[in-house]
Amino acid sequence: MIYYALAYLSGNLLLFNKFLSFILILGLVIIMKRKSFSLIHFIMIVIISLSSFMMFQNDLRSEKEYHSSMINKVFQGKAKFITKPNLEHRILKGKIKIGKKLYTYIYNIHASKNIEIKNVSEFLFQKTCKVHGQFRTLKNDTRPNLIFIIQNIHLSSCYEDTSTFSDTLNKHKAFIYEKMKQWKIAFPEKTIALITGDTSLMKKDELDTIKKIGIAHLLAISGTHIAIIIAIICYILNRIKCPLFLTKLILIIILPIYCMYTNMSPSAVRAIFMSLLIFIFPKYIIKN
């Protein structure tokens, strides 16, 4: 039921916005009382809200403990350069995969004596190499994320893994970015951030300014992005008289691909999951 989903959401909001969570719960209780719901439903609402709060609180605590344990920790081993490194003033930035986790990395080429190639950005893209570096966190960040400061890359150890579907999507993102730069489109890095939620190509000063004026949420993939994509696809398919069944089928295929395109952003996963539920079980959702 939609009421259970709202109760789950209110438990999550309790961690970040207590006032909004309280308003949501109060509105939920008033609506359920007016519709004469049985006592068991009210009990379920309380249980779901508390369970959601405890679950997200535990996840947040675990994330903070993990960050605390990793700060200033030295790592030496294999890592995969997921995105195409962005070279700016001899500083490389991008996404790197260490183990099963993704991190933003920064590599100052001035600090290395082993870099002898000109097209280092092209060379490292989707390569697995032995790296040596340290985990740190950005100062003055409202929710600091771990970044990996690379001190050395052993270029002789680099090799290319078997290409996966995720690698293909990252190549496509890099291709789009390069084409936008060739066509001299203004702010290609911001366009990539708005489409995929990846801000690794943007300058730190720009990100800090965006956070200060309070519009950082625009660079995060949300339900609005998913709604716009669905609206565009439905409009185009409707104009060419595409059957409703085929339209739903196309959306069911495209939306999970876009979810992977955003590196499985939590907000994108939630929005796409709910959209797919509505497409697959429309009568049940409307009924409840």
Describe this structure in words.
The protein is an alpha+beta fold. The protein has three domains: 2-69, no CATH class; 70-163, OB fold (Dihydrolipoamide Acetyltransferase, E2P) (Beta Barrel); 223-287, no CATH class. 56% of the residues lie in helices and 18% in strands. The chain contains eleven helices and six strands. Strands 1-3-4-6-5 form a five-stranded mixed barrel. The protein is globular and about 70 Å long. The termini are close together. 16% of the residues are buried.
Tell me, briefly, the overall form. globular
The SSE order reads HHHEEEEHEEHHHHHHH
Query: What's the name of the CATH homologous superfamily of the largest domain?
Result: Nucleic acid-binding proteins
CATH topology term of the largest domain = OB fold (Dihydrolipoamide Acetyltransferase, E2P)
Let me know the largest β-sheet. Answer: 5 strands, mixed, barrel
Number of strands: 6
Number of domains: 3
Report the structural category: alpha+beta
- Unreliable stretches (pLDDT < 50, length at least 5) are none
Give me the CATH architecture of the largest domain, please.
Beta Barrel
Query: What does the radius of gyration come to?
Result: 23 Å
Please tally the helical runs, counting DSSP H or I stretches of 4 or more residues.
11
CATH classification class of the largest domain: Mainly Beta
Report the helical percentage.
55-70%
Work out the strand percent.
Answer: 15-25%
Strands in their spatial order, largest beta sheet: 1-3-4-6-5
Mean pLDDT across all residues, rounded?
82
Through-space gap between termini: 6 Å
